[in-house]
Amino acid sequence: MPISDFTDFDQKLAAKQADPAINLHPATLEGCAVRMADTIAYIGRDIEDAITLKLIKRADIPKSCREILGESNGSIVYTLVTDLITHSQVAAPGAPHNPATDHIGFSDEIAGVLKELKQFNYASIYLHPQTKTSMPLIKNCYETLFEFYLDCLENNGTDRAAPSDLISSMADSHLSNQTPATMTRDYIAGMTDDFFLKQAKAAGCTVPQKQ
After folding, report:
1. CB atoms within 10 A of CB 6
2. Which of 79, 105, 167, 211 is the most buried (most CB within 10 A)?
3. Whole-angstrom Cα distance, residue 82 to residue 76?
4. Which pTM does this prediction carry?
5. Nearest CA to 89 among 79, 100, 104?
6. Using alpha carbons only, what angle is made at residue 117 by residues 111 and 122, rounded to the nearest 5 degrees?
7. Burial profile 76-108: b = 16 or more Cβ within 10 angstroms, e = fewer
8. How many helices (H) and strands (E) does the chain have?
9. Can you give 69-89 as a three-state secondary structure string?
10. How far is Cα 107 from Cα 100, in angstroms, rounded to an integer?
11. What ranges do the domains of the chain cover?
12. Model pLDDT for residues 3-34, shown as the tens digit of each residue
């Protein structure tokens, strides 16, 4: 549900702080734009990586997606961005926001082929047998780092010094309302691939080799 004003925003924020289990979805135009940008950033990039790894060929991309979105990361990004700009409606600078009409979104046609492309990526890339070959190593890395960071938060872990940003990067409201396990999860979730592998290796894990 859209947020109508700052009072509404403050109420939702207070509710989340009081009960971290509440599941909130983007309810501002800025939040929607960030969520769309995430999809735009990874959908074509993952295809390029999969082609480099020989998981798929460019011709494997569904015909409708190639014809409408394009078949390269650059063309996919361009098509999605221009469509999003064209079909979104926002108030002019200085004008009042109208939650009943203002929105961020793709056209029906682009939304349809984007959904088809996501389904293709899941079936042909994310669930590809070769993609899963390193899963046991990655699973062990996650478990090792989770246990280490959790120990740092709960017991001032002694195996090695806790990373300086494990706590400093978190807002006070987050620290006071989240469990150590949740904070550990969020910290690991915010890592880049390279940082995750570096931390796992430092913790003594055998890490998969990046292709």
Report:
1. 9
2. 79
3. 10
4. 0.67
5. 104
6. 130
7. bbebbeebbeebbeeeeeeeeeeeeeeebebee
8. 10, 0
9. CCCCHHHHHHHHHHHHHHHCE
10. 18
11. 6-131, 133-202
12. 667 787 788 778 877 887 787 776 678 888 88
